[in-house]
Write a structure and sequence with these properties.
The chain is an alpha+beta fold. It is built from 5 helices and 11 strands. It has one domain.
């Protein structure tokens, strides 16, 4: 019996190791290929000439190469210039994206994971221009899915998260750069950041997670803490967590990203 358990354990370790070897592959996922750590991812992104071990055609979403961007746009869609196009740099975290997901009216509702669709991450401008283009990293989707699961584990049965802001083209991001505004190297430009909040009550703002009759930073901190727990459990998804208070234009929300290094602000 003891030998049988030992063999089973070794077999499990071998599978774990083999899957782990794919962590740095084109899918951008972690130890569990394609499905992510959450087990809820439904798609991955790859350039036309990339080969991904174990892929299925139904999971693959082709990327338009970065080189397709000419004079800051692809066709009629304005993207602008990424920071390293303007100024030379060596930090791989801020390297130019390898490609873009093409977004059409037909694939807006495509589920990339259990709770998130492609259309949720589109930059909020150029409303009438099609197709649109998005940079999006599967590790962000994975982190958001795990955050939803953690909220539920803690007794907050949220049905999902509203993406207040997902991908931002540099063209759009630049409009808000300045003191007290957006960063010129915002992670939103790299597809691994989202500003989110739970909104099960449909009031257009964060839910009252702690049930005290108010929607405030206390509720935002509950969401931020859930994302922090996810990072401690999955260091591969480490990144930024920022808490933002309500303004006249929006309720409180939390910035969550998977940049690869720890950052905290706000709240």
């Amino acid at each position: 019996m003891r030998n049988t358990c030992r063999i089973a354990a070794l077999a499990g370790l071998l599978v774990f190791t083999l899957l782990g070897s794919l962590a740095a592959g084109p899918s951008g996922l972690g130890i569990f290929p394609f499905a992510g750590y959450s087990g809820k991812l439904k798609a991955f992104f790859a350039l036309p000439d990339e080969t991904v071990p174990g892929e299925t055609a139904s999971q693959r979403i082709p990327l338009v190469p970065f080189s397709a961007k000419v004079n800051g746009r692809i066709g009629g869609y304005k993207l602008g210039a990424w920071p390293y196009e303007k100024k030379e740099g060596s930090n791989p975290t801020y390297a130019n994206p390898k490609g873009f997901v093409e977004v059409t009216k037909d694939n807006l509702s495509l589920h990339l994971s259990e709770h998130f669709t492609l259309g949720q991450f589109v930059t909020k401008d150029q409303i009438s221009v099609w197709p649109k283009y998005v940079v999006l990293q599967p590790r962000l989707l994975d982190k958001l899915e795990l955050t939803i699961a953690e909220l539920r584990r803690e007794g907050h049965p949220v049905s999902g998260l509203v993406v207040m802001s997902g991908f931002r083209t540099p063209e759009y991001n630049e409009q808000g750069v300045g003191v007290g505004g957006r960063s010129a190297v915002s992670r939103h430009q790299y597809g691994d950041a989202a500003d989110v909040y739970p909104n099960d009550r449909g009031k257009g703002r964060m839910d009252d997670l702690n049930g005290d009759g108010r929607v405030d930073l206390t509720d935002a901190r509950i969401l931020a803490n859930a994302a922090d727990v996810v990072e401690r459990q999955h260091p591969e998804l480490v990144g930024g967590i920022g808490i933002y208070h309500a303004t006249s234009g929006h309720g409180p929300f939390v910035h969550i990203d998977a940049r690869g290094t720890r950052a905290r602000w706000g709240g």
